Structures are given as structure tokens and as C-alpha cells.
Amino acid sequence: MKKKKNFPLSIVLIVMSVLLILSLISAITFGPVPIKTMDVAKVICYKIFGIQTAQASELLNGPTMEIIWNIRLPRVLMAVVVGAGLSLSGVVMQAVVRNPLANPYVLGISSGASLGATAGILLGMFSWFGALGISVGAFAGALLTSMFVFAIAFSGKGRGNTIKLLLAGMAVNAICSAFTNFIIYIAKDAEGIRSVSFWTMGGLTSSSWNLLPILFVVTTVMIVFFLTQFRVLNVLLVGEESAMTLGINVAKVRKFYLVLTSCVTAVVVAASGTIGFVGLIVPHIVRMIVGSDHKRVLPISLLGGSIFLIWCDVLARMIMYNSEIPIGIITSMIGGPFFIYLMLTKSYGFGGE
Amino acid sequence: MNIKTKNLSVDIGRKNIIHDVSIDVEKHEFVGIVGPNGSGKSTLLKSVYRVLRPSAGMIEIDGKLQNEISLKESAKKLGVLTQSSDLSFDFTVEEVVMMGRTPHKKLMEPDSDEDYEIARDSLKKVGMEDLTDREFNTLSGGERQRVLIARALTGQPKALILDEPTNHLDIHYQISLLEIVSSLGIEVFSAMHDLNLAATYCTKIYMMKKGQIVSCGTPKEVFVPEMLRDVFGVNAEISENRENGRINIIYTGI
């Protein structure tokens, strides 16, 4: 067995990082007001490095600058962070519950967040938090449901196991959805119901510099942590007993990872709504192409998820004239067929036999 | 490296599975545990490789109390082949075998050429070196078993714990596997299903019944017709090979 020199991980990562930066810049040029690529580059150079190129002063004081810096850039950066965050939780969740069907929302986080957001939008709860009220509601809902699910799965009689965890997630999911639907059903507020539905399908419309820092810090810390955990993640996939014989304390690691991924997911969902499908398919698409080793799966999924979400958001903004559609619709519309195509053409078995 | 248990008891839920079990594996012995289904063989092994926690008694690994060394430390010393081996994601044979290096690795430490060398040697020992790039899930039961043995060897353990290692293997690989593990020069502690193979390869046998050790000694001392009758419920004759002194069990009915 020769060392796997045929997979040049560092080159793939460099190429993908360059793609990510190019995507980021060109995504800014799309929108109701077309913007030149060079202008984007100039504004970013000026704002970040303080470099002012010749004849740029007009640009730097005009409305284009405003659109680039305060509207589109935070939005595209949000897509980067949300895409990476969802992919991260998807990869980790699938390893932790050892189930290829797992996704970041499998523990009921999305329905908890939706309930929180719905209560915020339709019942006016969390209004002390002003404009951030809905996000706060969603975050609280997400964290409470995941804690509730852990409590159910790891207490009670018998040993906690992952099937119990998934079923507890489903039960809590059903309960929260029921309450959400109940609130929607009794509400007489058509505009509010529309915002709820927009929220549950996910969107990056609320992006601003206010939300980005917290999102960025939480996601980055988690990414750095989990990048160091690739061996443990691999071993988790071979099952509890084998993992223990390889020196990994599965029960402890599993709980710890679940709490961390729930935090990332809760923060991401609070900022962007429940964007579906990304956390499920990005890890699988990456595994189809590079195999299951987390040393490769994790970083490639993060970059892939970011690039995917940037372009889905561009489509969400551009597909309909003068109006924007929820990004969750796009991620599923594009991701679904692409996923099916790969299923049909690759030999990847999704962990089946 | 020696493995010892003293007055070991293990309960699962409220049910007592093994009771007052004391065993001793040392000096390059190949120690076999035999016993009927449900007699507690796997439970004993699992408590040694730390999947189950004893309710009483103690376990000593390499002269240290098991609960005083870290899981990682004992994983370095013990190579384990468990009974269940399902993988829920696609890994190649190479990736599975390389996981055997896990307990030796620090947080971000990359796999070195030496690690790959060790993995390749282990795969060679079990005759699987040509299938390194195959998906583990596409292998036959016997091939998987050999890959998992290679993974256990890749950890370069000081002792091996095997739970019915010859499961799924055809007779050639049953014998080849037992030859390999007995030639390693390390202690082997194994649950054995086939009493004749146990008689051929084990230097010491513990016979279990209903969670307790009922007999212990060389195969010749343990495999006597009365014990086989009492523990397994079979009638058997024992014949002895005059050249090498090994015994052979011939079953005559139940």
C-alpha cells in the first residue's frame, strides 16, 4: 500500500478557496442594480486595506459603495458562514448518530427555531429585543428543543443510544410543528403569516453587519475545533464498540459533539431561518467524490457548502424580477436533482451494503 | 504483557452475567475461553477491553489496574477484534486498517509513511494486500474479518483480544489466522467456538458455564468427556496424537 499521494488535498483546498473568493466577489455584482466587478474589488480594497486607487473617490462616496459595503457584502458573507456552518453540523451529526440520513435539523432544532420565530412574528413575543427579536426567539427555541431532546434520549430507562436520539428528535419535532401550525392557524395576520413562511424556508435578507460577528465567531471556533477531530469522527463511524477499542470514549465524545453542533445550528438558524437540504447533501456529495475520511470530507464540505450557498442566494435574488424568493426553495430545487444525478452515476453506497 | 482479572463480576441491567471470574494471561500464552452460547465469554472479553464496566472485582492490564489507565493507553496495548463489525459509511480497506493507528496519534498528527508501512504489513499478514482500495462494505464476511484483524495488528498491540476470530472464515483462513496470531509472540486471549481448533492452538483453556469458570488448564486437562458432557451437553471421545501430544475431539452425539 503506497501512501495516498493520488489525492492532493492541499491543492484541492487551495483551488476551492480561490473559487470561494471569486464567487464572493462576483456574487456581489448580481442584484437589481448591476455593479462592475472592478468596483467591488476597489471598494473591498479600500475598506479593508485602506488602499484608494486612482479616480476612485467618486465611487467611494456614492450609492454604489453603500450597496456593495452595507447591503451585498454582508449578505454574501452571511451565505459563506451559513453554508459552512450547516455543512459542518451536517458532517458531524451524521458521524455522531452514525446515520447517513442525519442532518443538522435532525434533533428538532429547526422546528424549535420555527416555533420561536413564529411566536416572535405572530404573537409579538421577544419584542424587547427590537429588530433582533425574531432571531432571539429562533435561537432560544432551537437551543431549548435540542436540550430537551438530549434530556429525553440520555435519561430514562436503558442506555442512551442514537436511535433513541433520532426518535426523540422526531417526537419533539412533531410537537413543535403542531404548536407552530396552531399559532399560524389562529392568527389573523396575513402579512405575518407570509413572513413566517418566508422565515421557515430560509433567507439571507436579514443580513447585516450587526449579526455577522457573532455568527462568524461561533462558526469559526467550531470549525477550528472540529478540523482537529478528524480521527475521532472517522472512528465514530465504525461503531461504538470498535471506537472504544481504539481508545475513543464514545459516550462522552458523542454528547460533547452534539452540544457543540446544536450551538452552531442554533446560531445559524437564528440568523437565516431553516435553510433545508444543505447540511444533508453537501457532506454526501463530498463523500461521493473523495470518500468518507473526515480529513478530506470536513474541509471540502465547508468550502463547498459556502460556495453552494453563495450561488443559491444569487439565484434567490435574481430569478424573479423585483422580488426575492426564499433561499430554501433554491437549495432544494438545485441540490435535489444534482444529488439524484450523482446517486445514479457514482458507485457510492451511502453506507448501505 | 499480562492480563489478569480477579473475582470479576459483570451485570448488564439487573442481570448478573459473569460471576467471580479470575483469569490470568501471561508469558506469550494463547489463552482460549470456551463455553456454550450465553456462558459469558463475550462479556468477559468486553469487560477486559472496557466496553462493559465490572460491578465487582478487578482487572489488571500490563501490571496496572485497568481503571487507573486511560482508555487511550489501554487501546495502545490491546488489539481487539470485536464480534460486530458493521460500518455505516463507505470506507476503503486502507482507511479501515489505518484507523488501527488512532490510539498512537496526537490531535493533529498526520499519518506518516511508517504508519502506512505498518498497515501494509498487517494487510500482508492476513493476505489482503491486493484489496487495499476496495470499499470495506463490498467485501465478503471472511474478507472483512481479515481486514479487522489487520486493523487490530496495525495498532502494534502488546496483546490481542479476539472474540470468535474464526467466524465467517473458511477453514484455510481459520487455520491461517490462528497460525498468524500464535506466531506474533504476544499474548492472545480469545473466545473460541471450535473446540478442536482451541485444542490445537491454545496453550491454556478456560471453560465457562453460566457466567463462571468451571475448568482451567491445558487442552488435555480441560477437554475431558465428562466436562464436555456437563458443559456443552455433548458426548465425545478424545483421541491423542502420539507424535505431538495434541488431542482431538470426536463428537459422538448428544
From TrEMBL, chain B:
This is ABC transporter ATP-binding protein. Residues 3-235 form the ABC transporter domain. InterPro entries: AAA+_ATPase, ABC_transporter-like_ATP-bd, ABC_transporter-like_CS, P-loop_NTPase. CDD domains: ABC_Iron-Siderophores_B12_Hemin (cd03214). Keywords: ATP-binding, Nucleotide-binding, Transport. It comes from Blautia liquoris. GO terms for molecular function: ATP binding; ATP hydrolysis activity. Gene3D superfamilies: P-loop containing nucleotide triphosphate hydrolases. It comes from the Bacteria. PROSITE patterns: ABC_TRANSPORTER_1, ABC_TRANSPORTER_2.
